[in-house]
Amino acid sequence: MPILLKDHDPELALRPGTTKSDIVKYLYQHPEWGYSPKDVTEALDIPRGTATTTLKRLYDDDYLGKTDDGYYHALGDREDIRRYVSSLDQTHRLFGHHRDEETTPETPEKRIGDGRTDEELDAELDALENEMDGLDE
């Protein structure tokens, strides 16, 4: 996917599809709330230890804030992270329905080349190429 260079931050070490990215996305989508590791575990269905460790690393790397009583939250001054989360949301709106786990691809009624030998397919391809060459002249 192309990026808009004026908004690109190569120092942002987040990659879509990782637990780190999922946690950042969740907290920045709900910036008015603070979450405990248990809350994140339940919301994202990840192991408690993973949530605790990842939240601490994100806090240490200044991706998240943390209250004195242990609730993690989005930072108001991280416009780069807000852009990242926004791009994830836009990508999901554009392509997310194609990745629905419950959806199975349709099976075509007829497959190209069914019931024909390689020689017949080659002859048909040659005929089409000759036809196209005739149109170009």
From TrEMBL:
Start-end of Basic and acidic residues biased regions: 97-118
Region (Disordered): 94-120
Source domain of life: Archaea
Protein name (record): MarR family protein
